[in-house]
Amino acid sequence: MHEQKRSPLWSIATSVLIALIVFSLWRGFHTLDYQWDFLSLREYIWVSESGTPGLLLHGLWGTLWVSALSIVVGSVIGVAAGLVLYAGNSFAQNFARFFVEIFRNTPVLVQLYVMYFVVASAFQLSAEQAGIATLSLFCGAYIAELVRGTLLNLEKGPQDAALSLGLTRLQIARHVTAPLALRRLMPSLVGQYVSLVKDSSLVSVISIVELTKSASNMVAISFRSFEVWFLVAVVYFVLNFILSRCGRWIEQRMSADLQPA
Amino acid sequence: MNHHTPAIELIDVHKIFHSKTTTTHALADVHLQMKEGEVACLIGPSGSGKSTCLRTINGLETITRGAIKLFGTPYSSASTAHALRRDTAMIFQRFELFPHLTALENVALAPRLREPISKADALERASELLSSVGLSAHRDKFPRMLSGGQQQRVAIARALAVRPRILLCDEPTSALDPELVDEVLELLKAIAKGGMTMVVVTHEMRFARQVSQTCHFFDGGRVVESGATQTLLDRPQTPRLQAFLSSLQGTHRR
Ligand SMILES: Nc1ncnc2c1ncn2[C@@H]1O[C@H](COP(=O)(O)OP(=O)(O)O)[C@@H](O)[C@H]1O
Ligand SMILES: [Mg+2]
Questions:
Q1: Residue of the nearest CA to atom 5 in ligand 1?
Q2: Ligand that comes closest to the CA of residue B15
Q3: What does each C-alpha distance from A45 to A27, A218, A228, B70, B85 come to in angstroms?
């Protein structure tokens, strides 16, 4: 509905922007004087002799499951920590606050190294476990802050009304607060998930096989770095585009009352 | 139930709000008593503690000192508060409908969760209540698609759906456009005629005269004057109530 209301100026601006991008790419390609060869990448997608997935698909699979697991675990951690920040007792609150600040204010890369070389060796964790644990905690710290902010800014009227009708705290949380908070949360939550998919490329530094790791390997074998990185960028874009669209769809499903009749 | 037990009893109620910089004595030394079936109006200037008073009767605010009893049972712990809250229902100035639910679902939610009845029965009851407030045609609309008057009538149906023994109304028409006020007041009058125990905060003095037997004037968190509605409004004793009533004449209809 928003799209239809945009002025013609908007489409002119978009067209100009796209033209600019195409022009700079075209110029770049020309000045580089580089022989583009995307076709040589075929065997990294699908190995025709053996009929098995190639490096790129292996990497894609890695990115998918590492991200998916981190998103699920991170959301659970984030919601739990967010609830504690919002309504926990002061001891729990300080604990959650400490966790959130640590993970929000240090680079993920450093977190990964610490988790892999210190925590993982102490507890005999695999690289995958260390990577997913780090991404989950990192993502959870951000989600915690989102959850706290959303609950704090939610208008209290409907909750008061539910209380005055004699519903229990749990019933109110389940039927009033959660649906209202969740749909308020959705856009920033999806933004967080998109960031996480991109940040998952960092786990390549602890040699987990995912897209970015596969891409480095492909470059090492084929020497086609431009083509490889271009392709990988497109794959990340498509992944995140689909993710954002799903988020939008869910958001609209949850806000039937906000749609025009 | 003993006929002499008051429906509502406030004994020496104090409520103090603490914030970082200020403490507000929102209620001070409030004594009130209401019989079952009585309709009482609370009047007074803005900030005088009327809303706070209603919210303490409903257990939405805990009190700093004193006691509140509904049908003889005092609010003493979280569990009695929950049990007592089930006897009361509240109408808010800003309606406070659940924005994500349709009119019908708004009314059906509490009965469905509180009582051992099927979802179908809850919806059936909600449907009947919505027709009784004249909103059958709007049962599947969301609150934001309804006018203020319609939203308030849904809120009234929602409150009645839990079959309360006491109905608390906090300025039920203050947020409405003038032409929508009467549809809500007519409905509340009908409910009062039906014998409901009601406490109504209002600036509509004509309405107060029509529905209420008693009237309490709040100022600065205290009940400054109480009495039979007619007497209180026609022959105000305190200068503050006299000043308040004459200030209303300028801005509100009587
Ligand atoms: N939740 C709250 N926190 C702090 N102060 C409050 C709160 N609610 C009400 N007050 C204060 O208590 C006083 C009485 O408010 P209220 O009961 O809303 O008055 P009325 O309904 O008569 O206009 C006001 O000074 C108001 O600012
Ligand atoms: Mg008020």
A1: B17
A2: 1
A3: 29, 10, 11, 74, 65
| A219-228: pLDDT as tens digits | 999 888 888 9
- Pick left, alpha or beta for residue B134 (phi over 0 → left; psi -120 to 50 → alpha; otherwise beta): left
With CB atoms and an 8 Å threshold, state whether A165 touches B159.
yes
The first and second tokens of residue A80, run together, are: 């739990």
User: Taking an 8 Å Cβ-Cβ cutoff, which residues of chain A contact chain B?
Assistant: 157-158, 160-168, 171, 175-176, 179-180, 183, 254-258, 261
Kindly list the residues from chain A whose CB atom is less than 8 angstroms away from the CB atom of residue B90: 161, 164
Range with lowest mean pLDDT among A111-115, B65-69, B85-89: B85-89
Q: Do A158 and B142 touch (CB under 8 A)?
A: no
| Biggest distance spanned by C-alpha atoms of chain B | 56
**pLDDT of B1 above 60:** no
CA distances from B52 to A123, A137, B201 (A): 56, 43, 11
**Closest A-chain CA to B97:** A158
Beta strands at A52-53 and A46-47: parallel, antiparallel or unpaired: antiparallel
Tell me the CA–centroid distance for residue B61 and ligand 1, in Å: 11
**pLDDT attached to residue A80:** 97
**Residue B102 is assigned to a structural domain of this protein:** yes
B126-179 pLDDT, tens digit per residue, is 999 999 999 999 999 999 999 999 999 999 999 999 999 999 999 999 999 998
Which of chain A's residues have a Cβ under 8 Å away from the Cβ of B89? 164-166
Q: Which domain holds residue B239?
A: 8-87+165-252
- Looking at the predicted structure, is the pLDDT value of residue B15 above 80? yes
> Would you call A107 helix, strand, or coil by DSSP?
coil
- Chain centre to alpha carbon of residue A122: 29
Mean pLDDT, range B21-48, rounded to an integer:
95
Pairing of strands B197-201, B166-170: parallel
B184 with B80, same domain?
yes
Quick one: closest CA in A to B143, which residue? A257
Domain boundary among B115, B148, B163: B163
Q: What pLDDT is attached to residue A110?
A: 95
Which CATH number characterizes residue A200's domain? 1.10.3720.10
